[in-house]
């Protein structure tokens, strides 16, 4: 949260200062808070253990999917590959066997695998940066 100028002016280190010295002291306090903000934001990043736990939870859970096509044995989902350097998109169809589905939802590890496959294929064909997501 950002402080107002009045809050900086009421700081004990500014008390007794006048004119330019007061303005410089308030500016120094403001700059110090501004420089500390990114450090405070980084301190709240999750640990590697926490990220691994979240990945395991995602992989084990079942997630709803938007079916594009369906056959007797599999369903198709749409994956969007964005080529950031060229500002264009490509749609990829990924097939998931129905035997892996539960109530129309797919396991997280299968969805991750399909995203990784689409990304690997796009990276091999293109040297630029890409984003891969579900439609």
Description:
The chain is α+β, with helices and mostly antiparallel strands and 135 residues long. The chain folds into two domains: 5-43, no CATH class; 52-134, no CATH class. Helices cover 45% and strands 26% of the residues. The chain has four helices and six strands; from the N terminus they run H-H-H-E-E-E-E-E-H-E. Strands 2, 3, 4 and 6 form a four-stranded antiparallel sheet that branches. A hairpin with a 3-residue loop joins strand 2 (67-70) and strand 3. It is elongated, with a radius of gyration of 26 Å. The two termini are 36 Å apart.
What's the gist of this structure?
The protein has 135 residues and is of the alpha+beta class.
């Amino acid at each position: 949260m950002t402080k107002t100028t009045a809050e900086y002016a009421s700081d004990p280190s500014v008390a007794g200062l006048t004119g330019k010295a007061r303005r410089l002291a308030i500016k120094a306090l403001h700059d110090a808070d501004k420089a500390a903000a990114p450090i405070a934001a980084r301190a709240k990043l999750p640990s590697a253990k926490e990220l691994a736990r979240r990945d395991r939870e995602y992989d084990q859970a079942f997630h709803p999917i938007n079916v594009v096509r369906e056959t007797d044995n599999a369903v198709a989902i749409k994956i969007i590959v964005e080529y950031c350097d060229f500002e264009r998109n490509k749609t990829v169809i990924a097939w998931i066997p129905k035997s892996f589905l539960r109530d129309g939802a797919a396991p997280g590890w299968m969805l991750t695998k399909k995203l990784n496959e689409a990304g690997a294929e796009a990276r091999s064909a293109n040297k630029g940066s890409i984003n891969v997501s579900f439609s």
